[in-house]
Amino acid sequence: MKKVGLAVWIGMLAVAFLTVNAIAQNPPAAPGAAQPKKIEKFGEDKRAKEWANKKWETSTKKYTLRMSDPWGGILFHDIAQHFCDSVKAASGGRLEIKLFPTGAIVPAMEIFEATSKGTLDAFHSWPGYWKGKNEAFVAFASVPYGLDFEGYNIWYYERGGKEMFDELYGRYNLVPFFCGNVGQELGLHSNKRATKIEDFKGMKVRTVGWYMDILTQLGVSVTPLPGPEIYLALERGVIDGCEFSTPAANVPQGYHEITKYVIEPGVHQPSCQFDVVFNKNKWNELPDDLKAIVEICAKETQLWANAWQENLNIEALKIIGAKSEFVKMDDATIVEFAKVSFKYLEDLKAKNPDVKKVLDSQEEYKKAYAPWREMRKGLAPWPQEDFLKGKMLQ
Question: Rg (Cα) of the chain, in Å, rounded?
Fold first, then answer.
């Protein structure tokens, strides 16, 4: 009893000391003095609420999943591999996602069906490839005059984009996550100089997705050649120009070696968004801790891919610029492209309620974010000497 009493007495002394010290550090305001403002909580992390009382258990069973992609040997395959490596490391090897070479299990463009049916467990892709399933997939990939890297992140993670993505893929027994964004794409590698709207009429261009239809409306002859066929078509004059991807992704393709110009900006793809997608049955077999690891690693890959690719673009532009001349469409042409693009997108929305739902949500975000974008626009991080000369806007 004496020992217990002593412990209580020591505890009371400690509490008294802490109380006196707290009062000394934060003395009460004098009568009539202004009271300090109470800091109200602003915003919340939804996941913190979901995970607040979650009891995590580390699973011991090991899982191995088979994954493929449509990339062949280009840089985007590295993004898929980065994700797989991250999952293996974070799970301590309890979840290994084996990335098979393109075509090793099924052809590149059959990975969607194969994963839906369970022949594959997962795939990495550009969602726009699946427009034949539903045009709305393109809205999660690249939209002419649409969201940039920052915009996709805000809209997907914080403004309902993820829920729409989950629902769309869910119809096909699939579970998706954003997993890699490489930013804005180059415009057109071209053997014809084009800066005005009339310059594009009659050109023969390789492109895909919604931009293919938009260019057709502007009098351009468009063909959706697969990547491996583009170089030869340019070399033989079958096409006058092509768009493919970012500077870093285009350099290995060699388009700059056989074209005279690069026509900027890449209005067709202000951002190029990739995903990783799992068979729903396989996903449901995973324990909660491994599911959390997958989702976190997809976000890590989203961040890393953009930084990695944009850094590679620095050197890639030097390589392209040594062979090709960069030319810019005039402002009136950019606006005219926008008018045709917006009309095309409105027509799509009228035909497809899924497209309307996603694009309206993205436009709502753009409007909500516009005041802050306007306020901060004068502080783009140009080099010091350029900024002091008045070069401020992005």
Answer: 27
CA distance to 161, 202, 241, 254, 375, per residue, from 220 (Å) = 33, 5, 11, 23, 38
Nearest to 184 by CA among 301, 303, 268: 268
Residues 109 and 388: their CA atoms lie apart, in Å, by 50
One-character DSSP codes across 240-259? SEE--S-HHHHGGGTGGGT-
pTM: 0.88
The amino acid sitting at 88 is K
Of 185, 146, 211, residue with least CA distance to 361: 146
Entry field: residues in the chain: 394
Q: Where does residue 390 rank: exposed (0-12), middle (13-18), buried (19+ CB within 10 A)?
A: exposed
CA neighbor of 262 nearest in space, from 206, 318, 324, 201: 324
Q: What is the pLDDT of residues 226-275, one digit of tens each?
A: 777 899 999 999 999 999 999 999 999 999 999 999 999 999 999 999 99
Secondary structure (3-state) at 203? coil
What tokens were used for 368?
A: 């909500």
Residues near 197 by beta carbon (within 8 Å), at least 6 away in sequence: 218, 332, 333, 336, 337
Closest to 51 measured CA to CA, from 303, 296, 229? 296
What residues are paired with 223 via a beta bridge?
206
Task: With both helix axes pointing from N to C terminus, report the angle between 149-158 and 161-170 in degrees, rounded to the nearest 10.
Answer: 80
Neighbour-count burial of 266, counting CB atoms closer than 10 A to its CB (0-12 exposed, 13-18 middle, 19+ buried): buried
Task: Match 């583009």 to its residue by tokens.
Answer: 230
Segments in 322-352 forming alpha helices (H): 331-351
**In what helix (H) or strand (E) does residue 124 lie, and over which residues does it extend?**
strand 122-125
What's the pLDDT tens digit per position in 373-394? 998 887 888 898 888 888 877 7
Q: Are 368 and 149 in contact (CB under 8 A)?
A: no
